[in-house]
Known about the structure:
- Two copies of one chain form a homodimer.
- By secondary structure, chain A is mainly α.
- Helix content of chain A is 58%, strand content 8%.
- Chain A contains eight helices and four strands.
- The first copy, chain A, has helices at 12-24, 29-36, 50-60, 82-93, 105-111, 116-119, 123-143, 150-179, and strands spanning 26-27, 64-68, 76-80, 101-103.
- In chain A, a hairpin with a 7-residue loop joins strand 2 and strand 3.
- The radius of gyration of chain A is 20 Å and the shape is globular.
- The termini of chain A are far apart.
- At the A-B interface, helix 1, helix 4, strand 4, helix 5 and helix 6 of A face helix 1, helix 4, strand 4, helix 5 and helix 6 of B.
- Strand 4 of chain A pairs antiparallel with strand 4 (101-103) of chain B.
- The structure holds a DNA duplex.
Amino acid sequence: MAAAAKPIRLTTTSHVVLCLLDLAGEATPYELKQMLVNSIEHFWPVPHTTFYDEPARLAKAGYLSERQEQGGRRRKRYTLTDLGREALRAWTQAPGAPPSQYRDEAMLKVFAGADPEAAFAGRIDWHRAQLAELEGYLANLKEGHEGRREDEWRGPETTVLGGIEYHRQMIGIFERFRDAGVR
Amino acid sequence: MAAAAKPIRLTTTSHVVLCLLDLAGEATPYELKQMLVNSIEHFWPVPHTTFYDEPARLAKAGYLSERQEQGGRRRKRYTLTDLGREALRAWTQAPGAPPSQYRDEAMLKVFAGADPEAAFAGRIDWHRAQLAELEGYLANLKEGHEGRREDEWRGPETTVLGGIEYHRQMIGIFERFRDAGVR
DNA sequence: CATCTATAGTTCGAGACGAACTATACAGAA
DNA sequence: TTCTGTATAGTTCGTCTCGAACTATAGATG
């Protein structure tokens, strides 16, 4: 029914919104942001303002339906339309994905001649904190297993396991680097 | 002398340009892009069009001086001004840096329920190719050591070593994942 | 009912990104 | 010479992304 106004390009950000809404059923921008923390944020950072812009954009193009709460904050609640569900399915099932990106300003500083110790200060602690967060989230997920269909938790769990592995390896890299001293 | 017109915010992109020009002495946008390939691109991707926009922006603010070739393509050649050199130095010497970011659309797909084998198809090969490229670049760098001041190659070399380590670990992660089969 | 803090939402402008296109240079074939 | 192909070099433009700064509502505390 939702008349697709003008066609838009679906970006990765779009798919983040679509897949969060698929999990949540219905959600406000604020709730979407909460869902991101401790989960996908580790692999795809999204600033919170995006969750106010992007759903509106998707709704206008017919991928979401939007309804506004009547009292209080009059928040907007979004759900997937059939078009949105279909777009998500198509994206999910298409094999492959663009190569991953690793962005590190500290690397840049070292490239420019900075002292690595200084540039990477705090990194090990940071990765450890991320790791701890993900491990907590994993425990949470496991508790929620009973009474859920596997396809509801398998994806998030694999992702979190991947993240844990990633941070472990990064910690290893920086520890070895530190122990090697200034080369 | 270069009258600093209106002050601009220096972004990471700005610092990429500044540090490349510091290495090159003088360069055209095209040359800057060439320098990026096989080196910083691994830690900070920058689309080539940026090297036409950003130097112009920096020049307008007094960080670079700009002169245009007379014949042929009338390319613009940029060099650091004292202001630019100072900005680079300040950034390089400031300790710390924002946390690194890892972005991976395949992870997102898995989160959304995709088959990991399909989503990560080709990843190991891709990391191996990156690794090979960096190893080649490292060999290049080593050849260039003689007759150069250490501070000209130490930064790039450390960076490349870091990149090599990074890709090795990522290959390890994906190999272990593959060998574990579908969990 | 005043105030504090957490939660929720918005605005805006600058910057990043990439598709698509144009232009120049140069080498070898016709 | 002119033509053609290909590599090199540069540009335009619109959309998307980002984050700082701000406003508003809700519920708790005194």
